């Protein structure tokens, strides 16, 4: 898939963009604030260690969904499957009881 500069609204977003433009900006801001409060309440946060403030931050999120076309999904699906297979192969080799990582002390045998 070739990346080229885009102008305008991508085809998969057309229907959503039409709906979104009909919503008041204040309503969208209100929904974002509600989501942020919910994230804080259920603990969808992280801390940045080493910062003096020590406060927790929200996991970054966007109210606008990522809309992916079928063709884009096919490309992502192939790549994700390939990476899962590679990760599984790595784990099978290095985290097994006979794997070198546990023998070298990189991974404790109890974790294998």
List the helices and strands and how they pair.
Blueprint: H1 14-21, H2 25-42, E1 45-47, E2 56-58, H3 70-94, H4 100-103
Antiparallel strand pairs: 1-2
Give an overview in words.
By secondary structure, this protein is mainly α. The protein has two domains: 10-67, no CATH class; 69-112. Helices cover 49% and strands 5% of the residues. The protein has four helices and two strands. The protein has helices at 14-21, 25-42, 70-94, 100-103; strands spanning 45-47, 56-58. It has a two-stranded antiparallel sheet. A hairpin with an 8-residue loop joins strand 1 (45-47) and strand 2. The longest helix has 25 residues, at 70-94. The radius of gyration is 22 Å and the shape is flat. The relative contact order is 0.08.
